[in-house]
Request: fold
Amino acid sequence: MANNKSIQSATSQDPQSLYTMALISQQTNDDEQALFYYNQALKQLQSYNDTSQDIDQLLYDIFINVSNIHVTKYKTTSANIFIDKALQIADKLQHQDKITQCLDIRGEIKRLQGDYDDALLDHNKSIELKLDMHQNEGLDVSNSYNSIGLVYNNQGKYDDAITMYEKSLKIKLSTIGDNHPTIADTYINLGIVYDHQGKYDDAVSMYEKSLNLSVLGDHHPSLAATYGNLGIVYRKQGMYDDAVSMYEKSLKIKLLALGDNHPSIAQTYHNIGNVYNHQGKYDDAVSMYEKSLKIKLSALGDNHPNIATTYNNMGTVYKNQGKYDDAISMYEKSLKIELSSLGDNHPSIAVTYENLGIVFKKQGRYDDAISMYEKLLKIQLPTLGDNHPSIADTCINIGSICNIQGKYDEAVSFYDTAATILIDVNLENHPNLAKIYDNVAICYDKQNRHNDAIAIRQISADIRCNLQQADAMNLASNNVINQSQVDKEPVQDDVNANLSDQQILSELTSIHSDNHSDNHDHSHTQQSHNHALKEKQYFRAYVQALQQGSCKNKIIRVMFAGPECVGKSSIMRVFTQQQLVILQDPTQIADQSDKMVYLKVYKIKDRTTYDLRQIWDSNVHEIVQQTYQVQINSLQIFVKSQLSRGLINQHLSINDQHLIGAIQSTIANQHDAVSTTLTSSCAPTTIPSTSNNEFLRQCRNFFQYYYPSQSHKTTDDSQYAKIWDFGGHSIYHVTHQPFLSGNSIYTLVYNIKQNIHDRVVTRDGQSLNITYLQSMQEWLTSIIGGNANQEKMIATVDNGKVEYSLPIVILVASHGDYIESKEQGIERFIEFERELRTTMPRYNSNIYSSRIIFNCNPHDNSDSTLSEREQCSLRLHEIMKSFVQSLPFMCNPIPIRWYIMATLLHTPTDSISSDEVISSFINRIRTARVHKIMTLQEIKLLATDFGLYEGDNELIAMLSYLHDLGEIIFCRQADKYGIIVTDVDWLLRIFRAIIQLHNCPSGSFEIQSLYEEASQTGKISTKYINYVLEPYNLNDETKKCIVNLMETYDILCRIKSNNNQDECHYFVPYLLQPDVKQFDLSQYYVSEILYIGYNRNDIPYIPDGIYYCLLSSCLKEWKNADVELYYQCAKFYLTTSRHYIIIKKDKSQIALQYCYQKLDNPTHAELIKSSVQTSIYTNFPHDIVKQKLSSLIEDRMPKFKGATVQYYVRCKKCNNLTFIESKDETKNDNLIQCQNKCCRMLFESQAVSDWMNLNQQHEMGREKMAECQLLTHAQEDVSQYIFAVAKMICKDWTQLATSLDMTEDIDFINIENDSLFDKARVVLTKWKQKFVEKATLKRLIQALRQIQRQDIVNQLQVDKV
Reply:
């Protein structure tokens, strides 16, 4: 923006002087000042009545320069207007050099706009004019070739781009020699094209040529560009450390040359962010993108396409993290800029639409996803034409969504369009076409068009056969053709055809020999050859299956759960046809036995038990066999076609002895070729830790593990259930979360002899503080509420189709031997059902009531009892079978790599069986590489080393699958990259050791003190943890991982000890023993109870785990390590206001009270009362608790996301809870109307007075104070405003932090706090602590206005402080 001095100076200058001043401003990068001077010059020139050639020349120069400024700012529309004006003058002057200059600039503008065809027209016309003028190819023609190369590169026409760059390079070399900086630019451009082609070695070669030009020196900008481009190549090769090293070299040069606020610096930060994104270091990636964004916004303004690119990449990071709302926000910011700066049809906009479509699909917002894909098509069709493979990809995406929505006809229509495109562009044998036909077949099956599905699957199979045939021919030729002979493609094709006939016939001959092993003409030696040959063929199939093979999931976890000592283990033994054990110990994470979880794997078809590893091995065999058979079928089809065409001698005997040598040599060569070729496609791409030879050796080792039993395996479509018997003790409810999954079936067991409202009784007769109903509520809430799966399914059970929500819970009962008659048992079961339906209506669609009552009395083995048990087991088996066959989880294809990885990570539950020798290779790997706790990076390295890694997303999907099966615990949130526990039973023992307080050991008084502290205060120290974990011989890093895992799941809460600042203490409230005395409040004034909770139809029950997490969260909030506890109640002392906050769990609500000391002196009593009341209405502790409860529900119970937490008070008439509907209701003398339909009485609520109003005078005074302070006392302290602002600021908290100069704390605050409210509140609190007297209300209002949040300022004035 020009200043007043500039304006005064400009008005007194002539156009030529203004032009000179503009040039100087432009050369010093002050574009705004330059535009001002240019505009002033234009105004004067346009005022002239007559024009001359000199005036036209000056106008031309101004138009050219203004256009160039707009190009640098990516304002291409404005740039185009001025270049057209310049071209008009050039035409008027008939000046050919000026015309070509305009065409070159306009061509570049068209390229930036994505109008590639018009860009090429301008550049080609420019070349023609240049050649006409100069009759030879000079540097100006070289530049045009370079510009055309840029267009071709953008179009994806990489070979054409290379041709143009090479023409440009040839002219430059002959004109200016081989050591000029512009030569380096051409090498860089060639490197970029090779990079886009995936020819990374060639790209690196070009970049190195650029670096080797001595003329550039050590700090030339071209060097920075080259280092940056090398970083991009290394990132794509998975060489992330090398990539960062290159970017840092580039950054160093740029900082010296350009300063720290140049857009090129921002681009380097952006590229480093890309590396971190690919490494899964998402927080680091966002940090880099934010650095980039800050510079770009400062240097380029807020509407530049480069800024859109950064927003887009940030969106991708959030998408990878599963933060879909944040991802959408970023993509929409990107889209807004792109539409504004690039127009409606630019390719960059297409990318953003595609990203939005992906996220919407992941969110289940299918209509929105389709809308994005349709907008994407609208851009693609005119740009790419209607026959481009990218159009096919978009049609496939839309078809897949229609398939999910059950719009099968529409899905098939889009699939057909995609298939037609691939066929039209000669991709009739492309793998994607086979996948399309597979999807069409699925649609046909769902429409009951099974014959059509079979036909279309046959077409898909034929395509795959053709692909196999092509692979076989290519592999054969690769072995026998010397590379020096392959100069011309037609010659290579001719040789390939001749050699493949012989090789394929030889291979088919070996197959025929295998199938006729009783032919006595063959010697024993020949049979050995055939066996070796077949083994090599299977090895080829194995390596190929490693890349492509998969089969349907066949395993699901079934968990037996329920209250303590209800007979879960006994039912499981009966169900799996095992003998009952008299006085069996309870399954406790609990008990002192070695096993924490008892499990069996059984076949759903016939209830026979299996070893899990055998099932995985069988799946691997099945996939390899299928791959092998496809190869053989393709060879047979090929040979038959050759025979029919007379290309093979039909009189050759299939057993001709002369073929034996050919078989041996050809297959041996083929074996090596297959290995080499397939290895190149499946070798590690991200962590290049092994060579191809090492990879092949590992492949062969794995193959030898699977191959010996290959001939004994047959395809088996059976499904299997992995049965878990999970401990039910109430103390462990808080530890359930890591072990639960939405892709499991749960069998919830209830003791039919007990009344559901009775207290749970332990095996030794102790009565606990929890009822059977509460225990069932705890389980159901953990299982259903803690799961994010919103899927539904239709299951046919009891001959009727019913829709169920996931996960499925099957109710069964135990202790049938205590019931006098079957009718009485059913009656009690129905009563039990009714109670659950009434108290937990939200879960009705998840629960199936079986009305099965097991008699598991081990003393009763009469024929009638055994028959009854069998009938109950069969009934439960049929129910499970019906659900298993309907679960979407069982339809998922599982790659062979997952089964092999599962075998590596699997911890056997029993001793190694007779196949120990066979599996010694697996055991060696497990011993050397698999640990009980591993990071995601360690798992990634393991998978890569053995050819099992196919990308981060698939690795995470594989770990999630194994977590669903209960094979591992996979926690992505723990540690920086995630924690994997491979021995689940071991982890449960660790949890038990920490949270199960056994009898205090004799000996050390210090240890006894630690135990007493845990049982009486609910707090444990690091010394306590070290002591109880001593028998496990854990190193410090493993202990740290375990504590980290427990903190992530809120099993522990880290606090600072008041006594020893060097030692960590942990808050573990559920360790508190039930005999701890209740609080003595006789000397305190105690407020009425204010309840916080949810409508029963939204959230029927708040589990203990959430309550304990709430206490931990409040502990962090109030930083009070001296919190007092008794059973399900905590008392926090707030030092600054000298009162207590009491938080208690009251069934399914949170009860809140405050209390303060009674004083005899009336004056002192009034002072403390006033202080407490001021603290309540200033700090709003009830709102803090409410907000934290809401955040915990959102995070830990995703099933209930969006449910509204409310305040409740107890009706004095009917004693039921009634929620407070609005603020208006609390301003009418504390009068509340009961919402109970049977009551509807009005009553006065002291709780409203104590917590909400305090009294009418306080309320009025508060509003007056707010207005007064905001309008006339803006320098006062802002503490009382922090809570209100934090509630309203939401996602803009980071902008507020930046405006308040708190950017250095953003990353830490973001990590340490969960909810947006907490993040904003902590920012404001730290800001106040950091700036002290400068942290005023006036400064806060300024910051809010800077980030366009006047609404908050207005709200503060009219609502509350």
